[in-house]
User: Fold these one by one.
Assistant:
Number 1:
Amino acid sequence: MPRFSLTTPIYYVNAKPHLGHAYTTIVADAVARWHRMLGEDVHFLTGTDEHGLKIQQAADAAGVSPQQFADDIAPLFQQAWERLGITNDDFIRTTENRHKVGVQKLLQACHDAGDIELDVYRGLYCVPCEAYYTEEELVAESGASNLCPIHKKPVDAVEEENYFFRLSRFEDRLLKWYADHPTAITPQHRMNEVVGFIKQGLNDFSVSRKTLKWGVPLPFDESHVAYVWFDALSNYLTAIGYGTDDAKFKSWWPVDFHLIGKDIIRFHCVYWPAMLMSAGIEPPKGWAVGGWLLVGGEKMSKTSGNVVNPLDLIDDFGVDGFRYYVLAETPYGNDGDFTYEGLVARYNSDLANNLGNLLARVATVVGKKCDGIGPRPSESSPLAASAKEAVAAAQSAWSAVQPSKALDATWQLIRATNSHLENNEPWKAEPGPTVDAVMGDALEALRIVALLTFAAVPTTAQAIWERIGMSGDVSEQRLPDAAAWGGYPGGVQVTKGESLFPRKQA
Ligand code: MSP
């Protein structure tokens, strides 16, 4: 069976899950579901990033141990993902033993290769970023200067003896690797950004902290703990058995896609492949870089205080309503502006008016004109071509991690089916072969829509499937074959049921 693996970033446990975290996780889930429907053996990994100064400080502020702090927050992520229907195959916490073993193995491998060395470091550190900045990178705002460009907070001047990863030695190797793998990072402009950054020259980075205790001890010097980013990036290996289950590790690495936000590209596309090369491990096959969800033009984050809790939105819009908005509204890779009005508008237009209305009207007409029994589709329906196009376009969009494009293609079919009904007005016609043909075609289109929407809105897809009289689970169908025109058997009971997406007031 072909294999497909993908990861989300692991989220810091200093904040409760918010829309920004949900965003990448939902995109990853939809992509994972799509690949499972292609019949692939999928490994979808997410988890939490629990070490480092940021968590230590948050725990101190809360008056609990960092372990206790992490133990309180990590389950909130697990529960949120469960409620959002996230089908991750594993959830790694960086405080787990399997992770520690793997991080130490990776550190040792880079050390053995001669790429980790002791040195003294002076630098400007932003704790919320867990990263050093150069003076040129700092910004000024509202009368204050020397602020972190992302959090707009003062940075700390730090001087300490650290172990360094000799990133500067990897410039040529990274450039060659990217030249040999020109499509590894999407969107393309992110690849250009990474290559441009490497060409400017790379600085070694510190991989250990002596003053901090909350982390994984270096195997070759236990008076230091690993830098949180070295620790965190390793999760992609440790979760699939690096250091604990070699056969499993070999069967899943290299990963097909790391899904990451644009703020963590440098770590993922420069540090990470260099660390892997040093340890003699192949770099990832791909990175899909997403934008930010903005609220009033600002990145939503704990530090900015403009956080939207995804679970509140589910109460109003349903899991699928929320998932759909997140997937359809913003092309993955771009920034999106989250507004409540935008959510209502998209829900009403695409879900209530287009999809919900199509299903309701098909079920009503079949109930009235076909005794509730769905007729067979015709072989030469004008909808067959629309369906074929939708399947092909959805397939290529999902493989390129472009859910909004895939959904757009799917909604073309929904719109074409609504138009087909409006052009033929079966509700006005007498029962008979003409009505049967139109309704059979609409039901077949809905069957294909259920298959194409399952990745994004799984509960809705299954509901459509059952209401048009199909048996079994949508998830067990295999694409693209199952979506070939003509699969609707006819002669099955069609049920009207409650409205899937009641309209919302803005
Ligand atoms: N722990 C690190 C990642 C380590 S991965 C080896 C981290 N955690 S984070 O919780 O701060 O952010 C994780 C991801 O969520 C980042 O990719 C970030 O871009 C994404 N998002 C956080 N807020 C976001 C938005 N408001 N919008 C979209 N994505 C956002 O960084």
Note: The mean pLDDT is 95.
Number 2:
Amino acid sequence: MIGSGAGAWVDREAGQLNVPGPIRRSIGLMQATVLLLATLGIALALSAVQLSIAAGQHRGAARARTEDVLTLAEGGATRAAWTLDQELAARVLGGVLATGGFRAARLVDERGEVLAAIRHYDAPRDPLSSRIREWLFRDVLRGERRLTLTVAGRSQFVGMLEVEQEPHALAAGFIRQAQGAVLASLVESLLVGLMLLWISSRLVTSHLHRAAVQLADARPERSDVFRLPVPAVHRDNELGDLLRSTNRMIARLQDSRRELAHVATHDPLTGLPNRLLIRDQLEGALSRARRSGTRVAVLFLDLDRFKAVNDLHGHECGDALLQAIAGALSTAVRDADAVGRLSGDEFLVVGEGIESEDEVVQLVRRVVDAASRRHPLGEREVSATVSVGVAIFPADGEDADALIRNADLAMYRAKRDSGSVWRFYSDEMGGRAAQRVRLEADLALARGRGELELHYQPRYATGTGVIQGCEALVRWRRGGRLVNAARFIALAEDSGLILDIGDFVLDEACRQAAAWNAAGTPLRVAVNISGRQLTDRDLAADVRGALARHGLAPRLLELEVTESVLIGNLERGRALLAGLRDDGVVISVDDFGTGYSSLAYLIGLPAACLKIDRSFVSGPNRSPAVLGMIINMARSLGMRSVAEGVETEAQHAMLCEHGCDEVQGYLLGVPVPASEFAAAFLSGEDARPAVGRRS
Ligand code: C2E
Ligand code: MG
Ligand code: MG
């Protein structure tokens, strides 16, 4: 029975709908009726036998009674017949009837003439019952006796005495007995029938009915296991066997349904959902997204040069590659996402619950990373690359088909533009995300292409105006134009590229500081350290390596670590930075005031400088009172206070007034390349801050 609608199963063979309806014929009732009729029949037959015995007894008794009365009256009757005494005859007959139970008597003489005859008046009765009684006792009603007299040694016939019993009186006892017996049989069979009905309904029918209702409600298409309960009382009998067999059959049915459903909806090679199922899953994701107001990203992946893999390594290898990519994709996506194989070397990824451009980028990045790499296939490794087209709901299509079509289109564009791994179909978000991803892809290549450079911004002592050092700030010259540092640094942090960039900055800053030192203008260079360099790398080894490579004295290197990074890695960071501080490297807390700004964590930090975030100096939070407090706090902890973002004379004057140790900002010098920096700030006469000058 496969294929069902709500509430009913279709019996394929019978071709009809088996709807469980009200019980029309109960097995118990049928059983009871048959048994009732059978016991009734048997009871009636037994009663009939009983009655026929009883009737025989009654008839014997009647016969004996007749004989008794005839014997009793014989003497008198013989005398009356012999003497032809009619009066005596009448008295003898009267005596016979007086014994009761007789309705007629007659005495005839030897010639057959009636000497006397008496008949009681018969009250009119129900003719049928009278006839039955007559019929039942007809052969015993009448009795006669030949009257003989022995005269001279010879027996001589003198007459006949005839008596006739009253049938009503005779049958009354028998009929009472018969009524009682039949009634008892009826009651007995009725009771037996009812008892059987109750027993069979309690023991069998109710269980069968329950099983029938449960079977009718069963949905074999549902994944949960369906079992008919086997009552303890039937565990070892035929009903238990029947229920267990039914359960086994249902289990097999469910298994084959599941197998069938799996085969129909999954790709046999990779085990991924096929086009049908992934499209369904996309539909589901779309309806959830409509309700929650989120977006859905549809990624159409196509392997590059898959045909070449097949041609070069054989189809088995091609299959193995598809399986490897399917596995990699499945593990790369989030739980909420879905991966399916559309056909050949095409895959579809559905990203659900997308709220920002960032999430699309992450998803695409994960998917591309998972697919585009060298996949170990047995003995050999096969490298694969993919082209990805991305369509985003709702902007790029309202339904699954439109989104898949548009993602496919975008994928073709990605393939056409050689070198671009992926393309968005359109839309603002897609465009932004695409830009972002390209930026990221380019950033990954920036170092190799020599597009990264460092700009240096000077730092001055407030009181003396003597240059104290400079901060190295990384710049990316992409296509001849500088990319906004805050933007690409955030991207680099996100993608992990910051580790590579950090290496470059550290190395380049050390190289530059060593060069300035060698030129006779020693200057401490401050390098910004990202949180990832603290956690994902051995920063101490990197720093020592860079210092050693360029023969730079540790005191000419300063490491700026932001407050929030330090808070996140307090234990490890503290020990690591303390080690470097002991080497002579200067440590400073960057952007102070934007994180916890708590005195508690500052105590015990191996930092020599506290760089006050520029938002307190020239930004929205600027406040002389707060600045004063931070400067005092730094002083009491034995740290030098450095104010960033000094843009105006007034700010500069206020910082001098509050006793801030060092200042840095556009007012004193913008970040410039090393060559300009030396000319502008290290040329002897320019040792004092170039207040008001912006280079
Ligand atoms: P930061 O460490 O606080 O660097 C100071 C930032 O303030 C620089 O921005 C600098 O150009 C800017 N600035 C300097 N003076 C003024 C001023 O008077 N007014 C204003 N409004 N801004 C001023 P930039 O170069 O855009 O860098 C932004 C942030 O990027 C840096 O903040 C730092 O956290 C990070 N960064 C820069 N270079 C690197 C690097 O090589 N490695 C790491 N990990 N992060 C870096
Ligand atoms: Mg800094
Ligand atoms: Mg800063």
Note: The radius of gyration is 59 Å.
